[in-house]
Amino acid sequence: MVAAHNSVLKRHRQSLRRRERNKAIKSRIRTLVRKVRKSIEVRDHQAAAAQLQEVNRAVDKAVGKGAIKRNTASRWLSRLARSVSRLSTGSQAA
């Protein structure tokens, strides 16, 4: 049970609101990442590159709001960008 001080009660309400917001943000990012991976799987470089930009915007916003950490976001984006990049170089060589 939460202590019955006004400041603690307010802090608890804030944390619940932030938790809901963070869940929504993370869910959206996971969906966008899934779309990029699907495009990579079917070897559609144009769609993957466009979706990667959308992921980039969403992840940057999430970092700004504190939903995910900066290094985590950087790692995710780096891995996705590398996969998309491999797709373009792989399709030229094939």
Describe this structure in words.
With 94 residues, the protein is an all-alpha fold. It has a single domain (6-93), classed as Up-down Bundle (Methane Monooxygenase Hydroxylase, Chain G, domain 1). It has three helices and no strands. Helix 1 (6-41) packs antiparallel against helix 2 and helix 1 packs parallel to helix 3. The longest helix has 36 residues, at 6-41. The chain is elongated.
How do the strands and helices of this protein lay out in sequence?
Elements: H1 6-41, H2 45-65, H3 70-93
Shape: elongated
Label the structural class.
mainly alpha
Order of helices and strands: HHH
Q: Roughly what fraction of the amino acids lie in strands?
A: under 5%
Number of domains in the coordinates? 1
CATH architecture: Up-down Bundle
What composes the largest sheet?
Answer: none
Poorly predicted runs: none
Q: What is the CATH class name?
A: Mainly Alpha
What's the mean pLDDT score? Answer: 92
Helix content: over 70%
Amino- and carboxy-terminal Cα gap: 62 Å
Radius of gyration: 18 Å
According to DSSP, the number of beta strands is 0
The CATH topology turns out to be: Methane Monooxygenase Hydroxylase, Chain G, domain 1
Number of helices: 3
Mind telling me the CATH superfamily name?
Ribosomal protein S20
